[in-house]
Amino acid sequence: MIDSIANVLLYTCFSLLMGFLFLYALPNQYRPNLLEPKNLMKGIIILIPVLLLVPVIRVVLTLYKQFSVPLFEAIGTVVLEYSTGQAFVLSSIISIILIAYYTNLKGSWIAVLLVLLLIVLASWSSHGAAVAGMFGFIGNTLHLVAVSIWIGTLAVVGWFAYDWKDPRLFTRWFSAVAFAAVAIIIASGFMLMAAIVPEYVQSWLLTYGQLLLIKHLLFLPLLVFGLHHFLLGMRNAVDKVKVTKSFRIESMIALLVFGVSAFMTEQTPPHEVAQTLQTESVSPLMQLFLTGPISIGAITLSVSILSISLFVLGFFVFIYATWILIKSLHVNKSVFAFAVSIVLLYLTLMFSVEIGGYEQDETVYSSIKEAVSQTYQPGANIEVLVTEQHEEEIYIVYTVNQHDLVAEKVIHVDGGYKRLPAAMLTIGGTAVVDEKQKIRTFRVQSGNWHDDRYAHTYVTFGMIQDPIDVARVQIHYEGGSYIAQLEQQTFLNVVSSNENWADQHPIDFLAENGQVIETYSRNVMEEGVYCH
After folding, report:
1. What's this model's pTM, rounded to 2 decimal places?
2. Among 11, 157, 174, 243, who pairs with 258 as Cys (CB 3.0-4.6 Å)?
3. What is the tens place of the pLDDT at every residue in 405-420?
4. For residue 407, which of 388, 434, 431 has the smallest C-alpha distance?
5. Which of 21, 55, 223 is CA-nearest to residue 126?
6. Residue 63 and residue 166 in one domain
7. In terms of pLDDT, which residue wins out, 274 or 252?
């Protein structure tokens, strides 16, 4: 929740700071006079690095509490090696420059450029960049820059303008800027979705997907308000009071979108929905619309009399809201009608949802390597390190391009091997071959790794390159200790229990003679199917 609040404030600060400085950089005739509250800008500038400090503190505490890294070492590691820490340091430097030279920079494009750099730094440390690398970083940067210019400008004008010189001139150029910003937002949104949510409709099963859908529905009235402002600029006489009120309403809707976006950062992004559902529950919102037992399956959208009726009603209410906003300029009535239409359109989609089973790949592959390679791009370097047969199932641990370490299940059949849906657990982040030890434990409650006879299945696997003379490991869970042999410096241990064991589970590295060489402190269990 703290991260969500920090992100809402961060997006708001970027928008207000960009809005003010962008308008100040324009010639006077293109903008209204602005009432800037005393020290508001300096307060916002100071707040930005403070808000970027929130994830830094979270990561430091994670290293300190869960990995037993000394506090000052954890601080140094995060500040020097993690993108969140580096972004905080650089943003602090830029903020100091902005505060020290604010009077001189105000009204120049240099100030706008410095704000752009702050946004770039925030995007650099964002989840999109962490998940999708440069592609996610570029998409997140474009998204945040466009939103800050569009929403920031209308919010500043709506709440801080007091003397309109030429409302028609302003609305005309701002409509063009808003149109360009919306185009960038849509394009960058597709970029981020392709990287983070490739299965958009399937993602509705998860809280992240539900929030993304709600965010997209809330975006529709923002587009209509943008059209409304463009048409206002085409009129011979512009009512300044109505324009101001319209800008304020749109900025409040945008703040609501910010809130949804911020809350999404605390949810597990569905890189692959079927796999995410192995360890994460179906969204409570989706559960309201599902009947019978809830199971993992592919979403299909079906047509019924109810869904058609809701869609038609929602569509006409949306058209009515658009008409009264553009023709009658009744902002309050239109906002209420938009809210009703969004609810109806949301219900249309939810009542259209049907969940079926995921289709199993019936292809029989000649080798384990060929079977697990189907998930990845052609040419991916797959190195199988561990194989364990349990009746017809085979547990496998392998590396992908010497970077990710993956545990997967396949089925042994006559003539070869078949793949299972939702049967992968992935350790990503830094390349596994670059780490001395990389070990994770996944607490699984559903899916193909889960033993249905028990409430929880605990899957611990990892690679140990240093010390080099480790022969086996002994994992000390709350419910007991288990030994796993190393094969090619890699091990796998799977155990199930009806008890929800504590996160703390130290792992002893044992030599061939059973002597403890080193103890690996592990104080966290993963709840998703992908971790760093």
Report:
1. 0.71
2. 11
3. 999 999 999 999 999 8
4. 388
5. 55
6. yes
7. 252
